[in-house]
Every structure is written in structure tokens, then in C-alpha cells.
Amino acid sequence: EIISKVEKLATALQQLGLDKNEAVGIDLQSLKHFTIAVLAVWKLNAVPCSVDFRYPEQRKSFIWKNASCRFVMLESGNRIQIEELSNPKLQQPENASFILHTSGSTGIPKGVIQTKACLAHLADWTATELGLSSEDKILALSSFGFDASYHELILWLSLGASLVEMPYESRQDIQEIRKYILKEQLSLAWI
Hints:
Helix content is 40%, strand content 21%. The protein is of the alpha/beta class.
């Protein structure tokens, strides 16, 4: 099911004119949609630029303009909708795996590009050091505007492990997180 949705979304982005190494905005809430969107963008050798869906619209617009995203994927009910933006086309570096922006606590948020090699190395190191395998269950706790969300995703994909999404309303309460980890018998959570 996910593979066919990834193919369909990648085809739609390609038909709109998305080029290799071009950044694509992602503004989604569900883990399933985030996974489909990121995989569709990676399939086209493009670069996802995701935000936390709770960010103010002004911040989202700044981030997508700063990364030169011509397209952004939004949640529309149970579907992913592609919206075209008026930002100019810009090629990102060849080895970029994703773009995130700092919090902006020192002024303006700054775009940070994570390389494919760094992301792969981090997943490999984590799996090796923690002895993780396809039998493990990983908690998807991170905001999609945070680099750990990509780490959770690539670790799950590379291991063939289970990725378990915790409800948003419970993610700010450490006791609720603890209960959820124990209830679901999770192996790994990035907190």
C-alpha cells in the first residue's frame, strides 16, 4: 500500500516539474503521510524540507522560501495535497538528504542540510552500538521539523523494524511517554 502511494506521489511531483536535488516542503501531521512524502521525494533524488505542522504560517513560509521550495505537501483529510509556491528553482547539493531549519532563537532560522552519508552513518552506528534488529520497535516521537524524525525513519527502514507513532497530545508529558514505551514494549526512543 505504501509503495504504491509513494509511486503515485513521486509521479505527481515529477509531472509538476520537480527536478533532482530540488527542495520540497513537507507540512504533514501523520507519520504515514510523512513517510510516503519523504520516500517519494527521495525516489526523485530531491530533498525534503519538513516543518512541524504546529509552526505558525509565517515561519513555514519563511522556511520554504529560504530553501527555495517550489512545492509543498500538505495534509488534506486522509490525503497528501501538493501546493505550488512562487519560490524560484534552486538546486541543493548533490548529497543532501534533507533540510531543516534551526529554531531561530538567535534571530532568523537558518537552513541546515544533512548529507545522505551522515544520515546513513548515524543509522548504522545506532543499530550497531545498540544491537538493534528487525525485531525491535522504535518510537516515532520527534517533530517532523527536527532531525531526529529522519533518524527514526531511516533507522526503521534500514532495519525493517517497527516504527510506532505516539499520539501528539501525549508527547509533552514524560510520564505518558514512559507509560507508552512500557505498554508498547519499545526498544528505542529519542527523547
